[in-house]
Design a protein that fits this description.
By secondary structure, the chain is an alpha/beta fold. It has a single domain, classed as Nonspecific Lipid-transfer Protein, Chain A (2-Layer Sandwich). 35% of the residues lie in helices and 25% in strands. The protein has six helices and seven strands, in the order E-H-E-E-E-E-H-H-E-H-H-H-E. It has a five-stranded mixed sheet with strand order 4-3-2-5-6. A two-stranded parallel sheet has the order 1-7. Strand 3 and strand 4 form a beta hairpin. The termini are close together.
Length: 143
């Protein structure tokens, strides 16, 4: 089982996402964005280039400023979303990134106030959804 959150988990998902042609149609095709993920006290930074996610690394919270935007959810929210994806093979309508962002206070954040960079979440939302939907293909152990 692959532990979440961890670089190992993000790298495993990257490999699946990068190898699957069916994930390449979302977000208008190619995607170029630096995306952060905040999971409780831990943070990760990924880079999407073209049709692939080229890297993932753990960063400290201050380094999230390098991201165009980051997604911020509690560990329980991440767990619920990923369990839903595992159960259904993809997120149901109540657990997509878009729905989670629209509900409540939203999950998409930035530290720089650059609306062009922040808009990349909405522009490439389906690409990021496909990325997380790839997690249905692995067994995740939640830390």
């Amino acid at each position: 089982m692959t532990p979440f959150p961890s670089v190992e988990w993000f790298d495993t998902i990257r490999e699946i996402f990068n190898a699957e042609d069916s994930f390449r149609g979302g977000g208008g095709g190619t995607c170029n964005a630096s995306v952060g993920f905040k999971i409780g006290t831990r943070a990760f930074l990924t880079t999407f280039e073209g049709f692939e996610c080229s890297n993932a690394k753990e960063v400290n919270e201050a380094e999230l400023a390098q991201a165009d935007f980051y997604l911020d959810m509690s560990p329980l929210q991440w767990h619920e979303m990923l369990q839903n994806i595992k159960t259904h093979g993809h997120a149901d309508l109540h657990h997509t990134l878009n729905t989670l962002d629209l509900d409540g206070e939203g999950i998409s954040r930035s530290v720089h106030g650059d609306q062009y960079r922040e808009d990349l979440f909405f522009r490439y939302n389906q690409t990021f959804q496909y990325f997380f939907d790839a997690s249905a293909r692995i067994d995740t152990r939640f830390a």
